[in-house]
Fold this sequence. Notes:
By secondary structure, the chain is an alpha/beta fold. The chain has two domains: about 5-50; about 65-270, Rossmann fold (3-Layer(aba) Sandwich).
Amino acid sequence: MGYKQYLKRNLPSLFYCLKYINHILNIDQGRGKIVFLKDLIKYRSAIKNKQVYYGPLFYAGDVDSVKRQVMEQFIKREVKENFKLIEIGSWQGASAILWGNACKKRGVVFCVEHFDIWESMPKKYWVFLESRKSRELFFHNIKSAGLKNTVLPLIGKSEIIIPILKQGYFDVVYIDGDHAYESCLKDIQNSIPLLKDGGVICGDDLNMQLNEVEYEITWANRDIDGTIIDTKSSHAYHPGVTLAVNKIFGPVSVKNTFWAMRKTGNTWEKIQL
Ligand SMILES: C[S@@+](CC[C@H](N)C(=O)[O-])C[C@H]1O[C@@H](n2cnc3c(N)ncnc32)[C@H](O)[C@@H]1O
């Protein structure tokens, strides 16, 4: 059989085979076609050489550089001997590694992460989570970053784990789990008793505060984990986070979507970010 004939006969199955591999590896179709080989090689080499992997394969993203600066400056100011930080939502460990590097040998970072599908989660991530690749990559990244004695995973749902932890024990609580309103609100409410007096509660993805957006549209979209576009500014924001943070604190300190408030007795104070 000539190659033209071979291709004609096998092209459909080759195409479906590629689509299937993309599906298993959970690469979205648009980017997958371009990044597939390059990123597969990068991923395999990181696993083999015990290096941290971030990249489009498996949606393993690092903390973006602008936000990283804010978070690093914040943690540098807060960290002290016997420091204890608890994070809700760790994905492949990017923020856990940032916190862990800042308090290595001086404290501990606890990571509450279920490595499971959650209701409001975009469906494109499901295959990845079902394959347990997410959990494997998290452990690989923490170990490769040299933080296995600093970053301690608590595997399970935040709504179950957070309420059974010791109250008044933590210096910082960082919230970056399910971004839908009810879940985010519950994570904030359940975490507050864990904080020491003078401790800080903070979180990710507060793109806009409630006074900057249209309330009705925000409320109507409260159940989504992702973002919507603000009609006035054309900025994307997470309606669930915007509503939940406002419900508990009103306006908060925020810089590059990283928000924070300090507990002082029975009140909350804004902090310099
Ligand atoms: C935005 S990602 C976290 C990103 C991570 N902080 C980072 O910077 O790399 C949200 C994470 O929250 C986790 N999550 C969602 N709902 C959860 C729940 N109820 N309990 C524990 N983890 C949850 C998801 O599995 C996901 O890994």
